Amino acid sequence: MTKADKMSQKFELALNHLNEAECVLQGIQELSSYDGERLNSKFMELIGLVEDCQYEVCAPLQMEEDERIAEIVSLEKRIAELRASL
User: Fold this and answer.
1) Which residue range(s) make up the domain with 73?
2) Which pTM was predicted?
């Protein structure tokens, strides 16, 4: 599993916890509609922030890992060519 995958899993776990917390809060009957909407709005902002952070952290890691994999494939091809020329 790559670093990007591990980080993405952590962000997904955080998003799942936020969604669960939002569902619990929506089930509370004592909240006024104003407070409920305000909390919902804050949860949406927080979820958006976590999603943005996930993209900003994981996308560059994934690109870097993809470049390394491409380099490894290229080097392995070169090694195979050198072995074949012996």
Assistant:
1) 3-84
2) 0.66
